[in-house]
Specification:
Structural class: alpha+beta
Order of helices and strands: HEEEEEHEE
Number of helices: 2
Shape: rod-shaped
Strand content: 35-45%
CATH class of the largest domain: Mainly Beta
Number of domains: 2
Radius of gyration: 22 Å
CATH superfamily of the largest domain: N-utilization substance G protein NusG, insert domain
Strand order of the largest sheet: 2-1-7-6
Largest sheet: 4 strands, antiparallel
Bound molecules: zinc ion
Distance between the termini: 66 Å
CATH topology of the largest domain: mini-chromosome maintenance (MCM) complex, domain 2
Length: 122
């Protein structure tokens, strides 16, 4: 008589929908990655500096291996100038997501995006 009472079947259907939804969100979250929070710059395996990703900055690194200019703008980091022979660091383009990395092998430079809550690899 009463059509508003949920049957056992309805409850199972709802539970399945809920689980599918959660898995879907988890998959999207996993593929998108976390929003990055800061930019870690390493030279020759040593920490050169750590900079907030949301503050625009132009950072010139000049050392015995050469020159790299790192630009942080609009929540993205990139190598805007470099005098290395391969220019792979410049070709990598902008990074903004957690654990994304730009490497300049000739200059032993590594630029990595670090998240706020994850375990930071040092
Ligand atoms: Zn380079």
């Amino acid at each position: 008589m009463n059509n508003h009472v949920m049957t056992r079947k309805d409850i199972i259907a709802l539970a399945v929908l809920l689980v599918v939804g959660i898995i879907g969100l988890a998959v999207i979250f996993f593929y998108k990655g976390y929003e990055g929070e800061s930019v870690l710059v390493k030279v020759d395996g040593k920490v050169y500096g750590r900079y907030p990703l949301d503050v625009d900055l132009e950072l010139k690194i000049e050392d015995e291996w050469g020159i790299n200019v790192i630009e942080i703008r609009d929540g993205e980091a990139r190598v805007s100038k470099a005098d290395c022979p391969d220019k792979i660091c410049m070709k990598t383009g902008s990074i903004s997501r957690n654990t994304e990395t730009i490497v300049c092998l000739p200059h032993r430079l590594v630029v990595t995006i670090e998240g706020r809550d994850d375990d930071v690899i040092r």
